[in-house]
Every structure is written in structure tokens, then in C-alpha cells.
Amino acid sequence: MQSCPLDALTLFIETISTASSSRSKELESGPVIVYPSAAERATLEGRIYSRLLQGLRIDVLAKLPYETATYILQFIDLANLIKVATISRTWNHLSNDNEVWKGIFLHHQDWKIKIPPRIPTLTTSPTQPLHSMLNWNKLCRDRKALQDRWRSTPTKTKLKGHEDSVYCIQFDNIKIVTGSRDRTIKIWDARTLQCTSTLTGHSLSVLCLQYDDRIMVSGSSDNTII
Amino acid sequence: MKVTLESSDGQVFTVDKEVAELSVIIKEMLVIEQANQDHPIPLLNVGAVELAKVIEYCEHHRNDPTIDDDEDYDSRKKPIEMDDWDKQFTIVNKEMMFELILAANSMQVKPLLHLGCRYAADIVKRMSPTEIRDLFQIDDDFTPEEQDKIEWEKQWTKL
After folding, report:
1. Which of A74, A118, A177, A191 has the smallest C-beta neighbourhood within 10 Å, fewest atoms?
2. Number of compact structural domains in chain B
3. What positions does the domain SKP1 component POZ occupy (chain B) (predicted)?
4. Is residue A127 part of a domain?
5. Measured between CB atoms, does A93 come within 8 Å of chain B?
6. CA distances from A80 to A36, A64, B81, B155 (A)
7. What ipTM did this prediction achieve?
8. In sequence order, which residues have a C-beta less than 8 Å from that of residue B118 and are 6 or more positions away?
9. Is the pLDDT at A41 greater than 70, yes or no?
């Protein structure tokens, strides 16, 4: 009863009073208060609930004009919109609306987007605002993927090999190059994360290094550059 | 100044102009028909019961600042506050919310449309798909292939 106050309550009282009045007629006595039995109460409550829901026993989204139905969906978050898509064909169709997806995107406080007010190009009519041309579903997907990537903890791997502090690194897709206080430069395979070679030559810490396709230059606290 | 409105079933309501003007449609009509305000404004899509409720809503909200959210999309991020009166209004009228949404839509009473749509959205949010189908008497009309496609589609929304 708590979830359906007032109108349910009035109905409940109405029904009780009709029930009790018919019974008091049978008894033909004065003002007698008759309480409904447990069984009667159960059926009454059942009737109340079904009556409560009766007002809605129509496919709301399918019967409303398209704009209004999608307007409703603009108040729904991502998880619930996915649920809506599984209800029926009509609901699925509505859940694909671009405006709805725009709502999803804008509902995320931390999803920011900068839309220039208008980009004058030959292909777009100047009166059409840019945000209605964006594919908001795609934007949501991309943004979600990005968010997930930021939030997931990356797997950390330790590269063991240097005997002292690492002062500098540079890396690309194939290799990682590290310079260390142990006077060496180590080159690691970026995929297997194994040390592939160790370069020696400096007599003190390697402080900085830089490589390109052909050469690598390193600077050290032994005052030399190799 | 007073304005008279006529429902689809011929009932006439007299309301203050500022109350009636919460409906964008009526506001525009009043601008156009400034000269002859003697006869009531006909609302062909709105019945008397619904119109009375819409007027009740507008009376309560007559002094609210107008929200023009047509272009200001950021405003939708912050949900417009529902006061206790609004909550009570949706609870009392939940059986005719659907009609009220339709009425608010055809009269373009934007805050009421907003309220009604949010209410409907809340119902959908609280229920499981089966419960929704049950409540709105919807048939699950997907073919198994379509169902698979939907299942596959929703993968990306999960982490």
C-alpha cells in the first residue's frame, strides 16, 4: 500500500464501504462496522493493483506521437535504454533515435563535447544545426570505449635488468630503450618485454638518450656523448 | 485579462491570460487573434477532463520562470526540480498520465510535457523488460535472429 498512496487508499475505502454496507443490509441491524476477512482483503488488494495499472494498459510509446515517445526516452540512461531496445520492435526502433542518443551523451556529466555552432560547408544547408547531423550513437560508443579504457587498470609489467636507477627512456612500437645509473643502456623488445641487448661504453650514469632510424645518441655524467 | 478555452467535447473554461499562455499554442493563437477574443479558443485534441487538469497544473505554475530548452541542450543535464506539488500531481493523476502527455503535447505546455515524460521514463526505469511488456501489454515480436542481434548490439554498453 505504501507505494500507491491516496488514490489506492480511496478506492480501498470505497470498496470496503460497499462490501460492508451490503453485509450490514443482510444483518439488518443498526450501525455495525464489518471488517473484511483476510481472503476478502486479498482480493480487494488484487483489484486495487489491477485497477491502478489499468490506466496504463496501453503501449504508451507506440501510441504517442514519435517526437513525444522519443522525448520520454531522453530521460533514460544508457543501461535502461538498452533495456528499452529489448522490449519490442517499436520500442527498439524508438530507442535508435538520434535525439535519444544525444540525450544519453549529454546526460553524462563528464562526457564533454564541443560543437561549433555551425560549419559552413557546401554539403550542409546553413539552417541545419550541426548537432542534429552528428551520429550520437557512434559518439556514445566511442566515448564509452574511451572511458572504459581510462578506467580499466592497465596490466603492469616490470622490466628487470638494470642494477641501478633508470634515468631516461624512449620507446616505440618495437623497442624500449632505457638509460641507467648502472652505466648501461638496455634495449627491450616491446612485445616480449625481454632485454634484447645491453650497450656499455659510458663510465658513469647514462642521463639522457635519443634515437632515430639510424643512430642513437646518449649523454652521461662522465662528460661524454656517445 | 481572461481567456476562454473550449475542450474537444464543448466544455468552456475561463482562465487568466497568463495561465493560458503557458501553452505555447494558445500564446501564439492569442497573438494572431488579438482582435476577436470574444469567442473561446477551440482545443480540438483535448477533452474537458484533461483540459481541467492541464489548467490546474498551469494555475500552480503560473509564476514559474519560463524554460526555453529548445536550443539550450545543456539544461537537460540538470533535471528540473519536481516540487511536492508536482509529485502529488503525478501520483493523483497517474491513471491519466498518458492522456495528459498527449494534451500537454498538443497544447505545447512544455513543463507539463516534461513532467509527464519524466514520470513515464521513471516507470520504465524501475521495471524489468517482462514487467514493462506486462504493464503496457506489449508483445515480444522479435524473431530469434533479431534477438541475437540485439544481444550482440548491447555488448558495447557493458564494460
Report:
1. A191
2. 1
3. 1-63
4. no
5. no
6. 41, 19, 21, 14
7. 0.75
8. A75, B79, B82
9. no
Same domain, A88 and A141: yes
Asked if residue A74 and residue A98 are part of one domain, the reply reads yes
Q: What does the pLDDT look like over A78-96, one tens digit per residue?
A: 878 888 888 888 888 888 8
Interface list for A 138-197 with B (CB within 8 A): 141, 144-145, 148, 151-152
Element (H, E) at A171: strand A166-171
**Distance separating alpha carbons of residues A187 and A200, to the nearest angstrom:** 11
The reply to whether A99 falls in a domain is: yes
The answer to whether position A103 is within a domain reads yes
**What is the rounded CA–CA span in Å between residue A84 and residue A103?**
15
Task: State whether A141 and A209 are in the same domain.
Answer: no
Q: Out of B97, B117, B157, whose CB is closest to A82?
A: B157
- What is the CATH number for B119? 3.30.710.10
Instruction: Identify the closest residue of chain B to A82 by CA–CA distance.
Output: B154
Domain membership flag for residue B71: no
Backbone torsions φ then ψ of A110, nearest 5 degrees? -95, 5
Q: Is residue B146 part of a domain?
A: no
Contact A6 B91 (CB under 8 A): yes
> CA-CA distance, B145 to B80, in Å (whole number)?
40
The residue range of the domain holding A198 is 166-220
- Nearest-CA distance B65 → chain A (Å): 21
Give the pTM.
0.60
Q: DSSP label at B23? A: B
Whole-number Å distance between alpha carbons of B158 and A78: 10
CA distance B10 to chain A (A): 24
Q: Which three cell numbers stand for residue A133?
A: 547531423
Distance from CA of B74 to the nearest CA of A (A): 7
Asked if A88 and A146 sit in the same domain, the reply is yes
Chain A segment 11-50 residues within 8 A of B by beta carbon are none
